[in-house]
Amino acid sequence: MKNKIIFIDIDGTLTDDFGQIPESAFQAISAAQKRGHEVFLCTGRARPEYQLVLDDLIVSGVVGAGGSFIQLADKILSERYFSVEDILHLTNYLEKKQLHFYLASNQTILINEELRKKIDGIEALVSKKRKICIKPIDYTSLITEKISKINFFNKKIPFDTLLTDLAQDYTISPSTIQAFGKNSGEIMPPRTSKQIGIECVLQHLNRSKEDTIGIGNGSNDVPMFAGVHTKIAVSSADEELIKLADHVTAAPQDHGIYKAFE
């Protein structure tokens, strides 16, 4: 079998409900790499967020921030950011809707005032090995920040309302993290998607779509499925994604990645 390029979503696909990567997933990915396959993370997480996974897992690269930031080993293939004008427009919109949100740059998570009140110790969020720098938004210094994604937390406003207001000018997708609220989501720069990110990787590697596999769980993985040849959904995935899948594997806590690689 020709070596494949495998794109794996993180939250709810690679990680379980507690945000942990099962040991069986490490074993499956390592074994696939030894057989010559290339493994990429394909995630809505921005660079400071997915870096936590890279502390523990060696991969060929990352399609991050929903396709806004594409990394191959230590090389940046593509990066898309909001303009300062867009950031001011979007933060003003979200503030008026009284939503909690944060801005994700390459190095820092910037949180709005309402979210800041709910976080204890905003100086840093500590993982096992690395700190994510978390700071309040300073609107006077936004010009120096490269923002690739905005996450908003929403339990009261229908997601379709936000979609109607924002989708014409930006890429917006539902959050796949249930704790954020069912109407929560992510906003990325226009003309950004996991599919576009995958196509960028394939062009750089001079490979074709026929060489690809994608594994996901959420509605934001629909574009990923559009960009790959073989589509695998975990059993806990959104119904929409399962209908699109060629195969269904187990949930992360039931060794879904390991079984998908068998």
Automatic annotation (TrEMBL):
GO molecular function term, any single one: phosphatase activity
Coiled-coil ranges per UniProt: none
Tell me any Pfam family this protein matches: Hydrolase_3
Gene Ontology cellular-component terms listed = cytosol
Q: Which PANTHER family match?
A: PHOSPHATASE YKRA-RELATED, PHOSPHOSERINE PHOSPHATASE
Q: What is this protein called?
A: Cof-like hydrolase
Native organism: Candidatus Enterococcus clewellii
